[in-house]
Amino acid sequence: MLLQPRPEIEYLEVCPHGGINRAELKALGIAPEAVLDFSVCVNPYQLPAVTEALSGVTAINQYPDSEATELRQRLSEKLGMAPDSILVGSGTTELIRLIASAYFRPGDPVLILAPTYGDYEVACRIVGAETIKQWTKAEDNFALKIEETVELIREHRPRAVFICNPNNPTGRYLSRQEMGTVLTGGEDTLFILDEAYISFVDHSWPSTELISQGNVIILRSMTKDYALAGLRLGYAVAHQEIIRNLRKVCPPWNVNVIAQRAGVVALEDAGYLERSRKKVKEAKRFLIKELSQLGLPPLPSEAHYFLVKVGNARLFRASLLKNGILVRDGTSFGLPEYVRIAPRTMPECQRLITAIQELKKKGELDGIIQN
Asked: Which H, E and C letters describe the chain, residue by residue?
């Protein structure tokens, strides 16, 4: 008889994500390199200097620096924070699980502002924490009701609150004032502020000033910023005591030498993010205009990605995928009527619009789009 895992693991469901499913493509007879992937919200403009630098990495026969010393130093200079307030991870998802492992106990209530990134709940379930959800509504364009959030925090006194800002998948962004109001809800609550997409928000505010409160962890994604999805790279910024505790549960050598080198090189180009952000913003404007003319107006979003109500998200995604284009089915977010789309280069965005136009012309979206 096989040994059974802990009950939390036995009934744990894997969280679906965007990105290419190679088994699915194989069944459809589509080559992965032939797919335009609008389902992931990653910067579509690769940094040539990173590619060039990686070709010269020769230390793959040595263990990586567990402290990611050079990368943390570069990040500290960029952020104006002490290196001891920074922990580098193999993507922000690893950091989310480290936080749960270090701070959540079985039965602890944890508040999640939904719909949002599914791995917050997965991390909670792994350690046996109990999730409480505050759902935003489509009729409010998924804007968060701050007063309701504060009431829930005061009522349940959660061990932690996950706040994705800008939120994934809705793209809604909380202002400094709104975040300050939320933080008044619980002095003994750990607030995890996931800013994986902050670099693509206009007029963002400096959240690192919240670190001094001692109960805030900020997560950021170099994977998203610098087109490093294949390498996985993120970091946490928090009070030094929190970082020390996270380091205790962090696996040694968690970030490989190639990812560390890519991060260092990426930070050397101070203008890269602004250059690519302008291009992404232009592509977003194009998609909003064209999709609206097709009767598929995107919802308001302060991020570069956005939701589109299509009726049947699963079938809409499947129809596009047959034509080599991938969008994110919102069903796993609890939004089966919506897809999430993130801009790519302008020529690729034009191909997306052309594909939808042709599908509508052929009648292949009839009965699927139900706005």
From this structure: CCCCCCHHHHCCCCCCCCCCCHHHHHHHCCCHHHCEECCCCCCCCCCHHHHHHHCCCCHHHCCCCCCCHHHHHHHHHHHCCCHHHEEEECCHHHHHHHHHHHHCCCCCEEEEEECCCCHHHHHHHHHCCEEEEEECCHHHCCCCCHHHHHHHHHHHCCCEEEEECCCCCCCCCCCHHHHHHHHCCCCCCEEEEECCCHHHCCCCCCHHHHHHHCCEEEEEEHHHHCCCCCCCCEEEECCHHHHHHHHHHCCCCCCCHHHHHHHHHHHHCCCHHHHHHHHHHHHHHHHHHHHHHCCCCECCCCCCCEEEECECHHHHHHHHHCCCEECEEHHHHCCCCEEEECCCCHHHHHHHHHHHHHHHHHCCCCCCECC
